[in-house]
Amino acid sequence: MASTDWRKSVVYQIYPKSFNDTTGSGEGDIRGIIEKLDYFRTLGVDYLWLTPVYESPMNDNGYDISNYYEVNPQFGTKEDLEELLEKAHDKGLKIMMDIVINHTSTEHHWFVESRKSRDNKYRDYYIWKDGTYDTPPTNWESKFGGNAWAYDENTNQYYLRLFDITQADLNWENEDMRRDIYDMINYWIDFGVDGFRFDVVNLISKGEFKDSEGPGKEFYTDGPKVHEYINELNRNTFGDRDIMTVGEMSSTTIEHCLKYTNPERNELNSVFNFHHLKVDYPGGEKWALANFDFLELKRILMEWQVAMDEGGGWNAIFWCNHDQPRVVSRFGNDETEENRVLSGKMLAIALHGLKGTPYIYQGEEIGMTNPDFKRIDQYRDVESLNAYSILRDEGMDASLILDILATKSRDNSRTPVQWDDSKHAGFTEGVPWIEVSDRYEEINVARALEDGNSIFYTYQKLIQLRHELDVLTYGSVEPRLMKDEDLFVYERLYEGDRTTVIANFRNREVPYPESIDAEGEVLLSNYEDRQDVLRPFEAMMIYGQSK
């Protein structure tokens, strides 16, 4: 890195189960990450974020942790993780771990004890409430479908589970539970990790337990004590350490995210929000087919950019992760190889000029696409399988549901990384836990590295620019042409420097906007020359002096 300032960092997200398998098990492992460390050096990223590798029954692919202190044997051993840290650090790379502190697996020993009796000392580590056999305490809905309460016959009470029935919500009102969480996080800091991504951390404080006119989000999202808890977490763990933190924020607000990330409040470094990734949810409904609303995408991105900049907060900026479809299939065009490459580069340039910490999800840097699964037995994701069952019960045609899953399922991003054109895309010598995309022969890392004009090298250049140009890190954000239905345009301004990003989101020529100053050096473009029009999916980043 050109600077020790974490704000100049770029993070690469690894979903270990689908990254690289060295054992033939059909699932990726920690040694598979070690094997690819030089690849990350070539790309130029600073941090590697690993989704959970702890012991887990894997009902939600590791976000249901049964032991915070041990590594899941399917990924390897604690010694493997120790070796990963050592070798990554030797290569100038840092490791960010994923921690789930809103809930645990029902197989965690705290919960096993908790459900034994109402007076067990771990009972209050979780949220237990009375109801009747067929009437839960509230009508809140689980984010994975169904009621958010699960009945326990042994103690004749319900426990809260905002996600899967095997993911019981922790009770942050309990001081002993909080202290155990802090001890666990300090254990991993002492182990040598460099950062944490906190899963759905803004849900840890619950408010009143009452019926809702909706799914119940207002009673647990950015709850009444959430800032108090996160400040306490900061003070008892990473606050005085060189640790980078990012919180995943579910259905949050700008006001809260300014509080989460303003350095003076001692909470977190940065936040993920997902509002810009709901612009293809018609009426807020995920499980429906719809084109994305381009003007709304720009409005949300720029609203957050400007407000977080002016309020001293800090964004994580991203298109993809393990819970989102592939962006080139979603907001770009993957119908032809030419369009896939052009739109993949365009999306990269459009995002990486923004203010915040850029996140790259595995395979994004080579333009991996949605796999276009045709059968329900190709899916593994609990949320997708639940949605299929619910929509079928509601009478929706199976073929329509499959079309929806092909665009919205989390499994779209969880297919194995396509390393080369050999069997199973070089991911495994065994049988992959989920099928490899059929397009691996044309879309793979080996081919991308050989092609100097590939999407990979656009990402490499964008990372280099992030390290070198202060205007990309510290500059203010100036939205431009917000009502233009084709172009995404903004400027970054800092100490006399200016970068202008222009991105044509359409598969057609668009006139160059007269109101945008075209003077300056083109730092990066997905075309080899400049014309008076912006060609299909054309994007460029222009560097000059502000006037």
UniProtKB/TrEMBL annotation:
Pfam families: Alpha-amylase (PF00128). SUPFAM superfamilies: (Trans)glycosidases, Glycosyl hydrolase domain. Its EC number is 3.2.1.93. The keyword Hydrolase applies. Residues 13-414 form the Glycosyl hydrolase family 13 catalytic domain. Keywords: Glycosidase, Hydrolase. CDD domains: AmyAc_SI_OligoGlu_DGase. InterPro entries: GH, GH13_cat_dom, Glyco_hydro_b, O16G_dom_2, Trehalose_TreC. One of its GO terms (molecular function) is alpha,alpha-phosphotrehalase activity. It comes from the Bacteria. NCBIfam families: PRK10933.1, trehalose_treC. This is Alpha,alpha-phosphotrehalase. It comes from Salinicoccus bachuensis.
